[in-house]
Amino acid sequence: EVQLVQSGGAVIQPGGSLRLSCEASGFLFSSYWMHWVRQAPGKGLEWVSRTNADGRITDYADAVKGRFSISRDNAKNTLYLQMGRLRAEDTAIYYCTREFGGRMYYFDYWGQGSLVTVSS
Amino acid sequence: DIQMTQSPSSLSASVGDRVTLTCRASQSISTYLNWYQQKPGKAPRLLIYAASNLQRGVPSRFSGSGSGTDFTLTISSLQPEDFATYYCQQNYVAPPDTFGQGTKLEIK
Question: Which of B 12-31 lie inside 8 A of A, CB atoms?
Fold first, then answer.
């Protein structure tokens, strides 16, 4: 059974840093692109970042570029999102998700979400 | 970035109704369009990929159609468990993947 189990959500002060983790099981993690998607309270879904199977390719939404860093440890089957210089508008539930399907891909499995609250 | 616009933003319907949700892209995206269902407090769930392909395990009352800029998600006969928020997503031009703002389907 495919599972993505997240950890690391917290209440953090503006300007602070936080790392989210997403541990994968039930599939060959090292073969898949992985993404982070977030959802601000009461709002819609917003794509945040992605990384390819070996972690050498990374992309970011403009809103987080230069502040967030995605990485993965394929030996530990774990995806990370290092978040820095956090702002109030980064407050959201962050989901990790697996990309499937090649060029015409989709997100077939999602983590349970990690709540990040940026507040003083 | 490609903008995705869903309509209506909310919809009230009854069990057994046939409902159609719409998603429009700001430019042609071929069939690079996915649909997700989200219930309160839960992660999104994939329903339809590549505009019209039903994800494994999703009931056949869900169907998708469209290409280019205009897409629809149809639920042929609403069930109580279908009341949720629905999002479309494009990845024809990505990054970034972009989502519609969602359609909230409520019980009448």
Answer: 31
